[in-house]
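Handover notes (outgoing to incoming on-call)

Open items:
1. Mitochondria-eating protein: sequence verified, structure written out, both below. Nothing else pending on this one.
2. Nothing else urgent.
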Amino acid sequence: VKICSPAQCRRVNASRRACLIARFNFIYAKDRLDAEIRLKKFICDIEMVQRIIYVAVLESFRAARKAFWKTKISVKQILAAGHCGGPAALEVAVLNYIACHKELFDVCCCVQEVVCCLNMSPKLLCPTDIDFNVINCFIRELCCLAFSMQTLIPPLDVSFGIDGELFNRNMYYRSCDSDFTAPFVAYHIWPALMENGCVIVKGEVVTRK
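Mitochondria-eating protein structure tokens:
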């Protein structure tokens, strides 16, 4: 494993971080809308469609985090045998190795896990004949993005929202069809992107009285 200087590691991390944030914004602006169009062929209720997409994002990040930690443990055991630096240097080497070897991530398994979670979610009251594989590509992009975000120092993650929570203007935008005087969140459209508890990119919610 090539040893990089701390300054070089910071530059690489900052560049990777900027690219991943831009990719997160693109998925929100483009891929999310494409997924809505696919789901609308089976579900007429736009609120339910948006709820499905929101749950898909959360489940994709959860599944990718789990897959990442399994991969990290395996890679650390391999690299530790020939590593000469301290624990911090080993941690950086492991993250860089995983970031450069994306084939370590079994994205197909991750996608199927997310689809199963969508099928079993009690919050999604959908027609029995709906196949969530219609948004397979959308989920795949989210899983790959979430996995890559775990290789950052510190990692990026999405917020978890609850219906009925107090609207937080620092974390969310209101959707265009919201009641702008309502203080509570009716449901979530897109989660906020977080870094060490701080909001990096705001999410979107619907507020109603």
